[in-house]
Amino acid sequence: MIQHFYILTFILLTATVFGQDKNVTFDKLISNFKNSWSDPFSGRKNDSVTISSLYRTDQFNVSISEKPLAFDTNHLVIKNPYYTDDFDDYDDNYINYPVSYSVIYDNRLVSLFRTGKFVCHKLENMERDFAFEKKLNSKKFKYHWIIDDKLAAVSGGTIYVWNDKWTTLKTKFPLEGQPKLFEDNEFIVFGDCHGEWGGTIYFFEKVSGKIYFTESNCANSVSKKDNKYLVLAQLGHGTGSTEIKSIDNPRKLTMAKKSEIRKFKEGEALGYADKSEAYQKLLDLYSIQIFSTFNYQGRQLYIVRLNEMTFLSEIKETEIQIVNPLFEKAFYTHRPVTTTYGIYTLVNLDFYGIALDKEISVIIVGQNKITKLDWNERAE
Structural domain of residue 39, as residue ranges? Predict the structure, then answer.
C-alpha cells in the first residue's frame, strides 16, 4: 500500500509537455500548506494536509492537479533607465515606476516613464530596443495603451496611434489615465475600484459612445467565451474575496452618464446602482483572491493567492487544482490587469506599499515559459 502511494504521488507531481518529461515539483508548496496555521474557519488541522486536500473550506477544496503544467520560469530585475534618488519623501518613490501599465506591441514590452519617454524590451531576450525607442520618443507622453491592436499614447491632451509614425486617433476612446481591461469590435471595457466601498466595470460601446455598467469589485481580467463576457474580480479587504460574472449582453446593463463614471452613489461605488441583473455569477468565493485568469493551450488558468501562497491553478466546480507552483514564492498585488496579446499573456502587477498604484512588476506567459520582470529591485 505504501509503495502504491509513492507511485501515485510521483505520477501526480510529474508532467509531460510537448513529448518531453519535465518534473513539476510541489514539495515546497505542500510543505508550506502543512506548516501554515490551521484555518480558523474550517478547523483544518496541519496533519490532515494531503495532495488531494491541501486546504478546504465550506466553499472550495485545494488539491494538486493530476495534469500539472511544466514551465521554464525566470525572474529578472530591470532598472528604469530614468531612475532617480532625487526625491524628498519615501512616498515619492513611485516616480521610478512606469506611469502607465506596460503593454506588448510587436513582440516588445513597451513601458512609459515619468520623463514622457518609452522604454522597450524585446520579448525574445529582454534586451533594450534602442532603435525602436528612438522612433517612438519623438514626443513626450503621459499615458499609453493598445487601441484596436495599435500602440497608442496621449500627449498634450491628444491621443496618437503608432503606424511607423504618430498620427491622431480618429475613433472614440473613453480613457485618459487608467488601464484598459479588454477590447473587441463592439466594446472597450474598463473599471474602477474603491476598495470596501465597491467597484464598477464599464462597457463603452464603440459605435454609439454609450457606457453600460455593473458592480465588479474589483475587475482584473476580462475575456470572452461563447459570445459572453467573463469578468474576474478580486478584493483584498478582510480575508479576501473573488467572483466571476458572466455577461451575455452588456447593453442590458444599466446605462451610465459620462459624468457618473468613477463616482460614488449614496456613499458606494456606482456599480451597486445597477439593478438590471443582466449577468450570472459563476464564482463567488471568500477567504481567497484570484489575481488573474487566462487561456493557455486550451486550459483556463488562474493565478491564486491563498494562505500567503501564490500559485497557478485550474478550477473545476468547487475544486481548485494547482497545476504549477509558479516561482514557489508568494507575491501580492492590489489592482492587477491581465491582457492577452497573441501567444503572450501579460499580467501587470502593482503594490501600494512600494509605488502606490504604479506597476512594479509584470508576468509574461509565453509558450512553455513564464517570466516575472521586476522594475528596479527584486520584489518577492
Answer: 2-64
CA distances from 11 to 20, 22, 152, 171, 177 (A): 15, 12, 48, 53, 48
How far is it, in rounded angstroms, from Cα 80 to Cα 102?
A: 13
CATH of the domain at 155: 2.40.10
* C-beta pairs of 2-9 under 8 Å, 24+ apart in sequence: 9/51
Last residue of a domain, one of 41, 64, 87: 64
Residue by residue, DSSP assigns 65-108 as -SS----EEEEEEE--TT-----SSGGGGGGGS-SEEEEEETTE
- Centre a 10 Å sphere on the Cβ of residue 275 and count the other Cβ atoms it contains: 9
Beta-carbon neighbour count of residue 43 at 10 Å? 9
Global pTM value: 0.91
- Residues in CB range of 43: below 8 A, 6 or more apart: none
Number of domains in the chain: 3
Residue 320 in this model has a pLDDT that exceeds 70? yes
Write the CA distances from 212 to 75, 168, 205, 275, integer angstroms: 39, 26, 8, 12
Of the listed ranges 16-25, 31-40, 262-271, the least confidently predicted one is: 16-25
